[in-house]
Write a structure and sequence with these properties.
Elements: H1 2-25, H2 30-39, H3 41-52
Helix pairs in contact: 1-2, 1-3, 2-3
């Protein structure tokens, strides 16, 4: 039972962080990203970093656009 509480606490903290970060760095709904991360924390976090953040795609090309 104690392990489930730790898992739930980690999931809630990750959900809160993703919600806050998605409000600043995502064009998609922060609520939906938070829901994905809460329901599937590891997979949701990986998907958020790969697909959810504005700067996730094309970071290597930003220095040439001055």
């Amino acid at each position: 039972m104690f392990l489930w509480l730790i898992f739930l606490l980690i999931a809630l903290v990750l959900t809160y962080w993703v919600y806050q970060d998605a409000q600043k760095n995502s064009q998609n709904s922060p609520f939906l990203w938070a829901l994905v991360v809460f329901l599937a924390p590891l997979l949701g976090l990986v998907l958020y970093f790969l697909l959810g953040r504005k700067g996730a795609r094309g970071r290597g090309h930003s220095s040439s656009q001055i």
